[in-house]
Design goal:
The chain has 270 residues and is an alpha/beta fold. It is 33% helix and 21% strand. The strands form three sheets. The protein has a five-stranded parallel beta sheet with strand order 2-1-3-4-5, with helices on both faces. A three-stranded antiparallel beta sheet has the order 6-7-8, with helices on one face. A hairpin with a 5-residue loop joins β9 and β10.
């Protein structure tokens, strides 16, 4: 039994220290525009925050200012006329090639500003989410931030996109609009960076807090339990009731599954 416990503990220790990746794909707000420095932007703050949860976690930020849903589409996607092609260095295919544990899709309102049809960017959001989930990646999607520098009709489309993101992609949707924007789609003055498009340091801090609150990493706690001659390995998720999961009962070789749904071979026995 002791040998089994030590073997299981060694395997789980290896899991705990394996590199874990959060990747962001998106546009200028995710790239840090509006903040005085990248470290003051929500993504820069989150990059510093992740290792405090676990030194194995890191952030890879592929966001590029000005990008729409089309630049993020999978490599090889058929691009409609007068629409930008996927950027193979920053799109969802590139993100998946990094084998992330989590992906955050953080777009603003560039599709709307470009005059693209509503069904186009709605379909693209769905495609991006589906492609990542098909690869076994957990996907969070942020709503757009306000945009004062749009006409009234376009701001109504922005508000409709926010509503769709929060309803369609719940519970893995993050509200980047609330507290920053007025009911008409514009910024409250205290959160406008000055260009009517991006938020300032104050707003980026709110976005960071909301990303943290989303608990995208679902940091696991591992325990090894021996009872009546059997060995049980259990992963528990901090801050989530009902997150405990027995991944292997008994002694011997087998497969166990982590909270990201991935399988790993393990041998542990007497």
């Amino acid at each position: 039994m002791l040998k089994g416990l030590l073997s299981a503990a060694a395997m789980l220790a290896a899991f705990a220290h394996a590199e874990k990746v959060v990747v962001i794909i998106g546009s200028s707000t995710a790239a840090g525009t509006g903040a005085s420095t990248y470290d003051s932007a929500f993504a820069g703050r989150y990059a510093h925050y992740l290792p405090t949860l676990n030194p194995a976690w890191k952030l890879v930020n592929l966001a590029v200012g000005g990008y729409t849903t089309f630049q993020l589409m999978p490599t090889g996607s058929k691009t409609p006329a007068n629409r930008p092609a996927p950027d193979t260095a920053h799109n969802v295919s590139k993100a998946l090639s990094l084998h992330p544990d989590v992906m955050l899709l953080a777009l603003a309102s560039n599709d709307i500003a470009a005059g693209y049809a509503t069904n186009e960017y709605q379909d693209n959001y769905d495609t991006l989410k589906a492609r990542a989930e098909a690869a076994g990646i957990k996907v969070w999607i942020s709503s757009p931030v306000p945009r004062s520098a749009l006409d009234s009709a376009s701001r109504q489309r922005l508000l409709a996109l926010r509503t769709r993101v929060l309803s369609r992609y719940a519970p893995r949707a993050i509200d980047f609009y609330d507290s920053l924007g007025t009911p008409d789609g514009s910024y409250y003055p205290g959160f406008n960076s000055g260009d009517g498009i991006h938020t300032n340091n104050r707003g980026h801090k709110i976005l960071f807090d909301r990303v943290v609150a989303a608990n995208m990493t679902a940091a696991p706690v591992v325990s090894v339990i021996a009872e009546r001659g059997k060995l049980s390995l259990r992963l528990e998720t901090l801050g989530r009731k009902g997150g405990a999961m027995v991944v292997q009962d008994g002694l011997g070789a087998g497969l166990w599954r982590d909270l990201n749904g991935r399988f790993a071979a393990g041998t542990y026995g007497p």
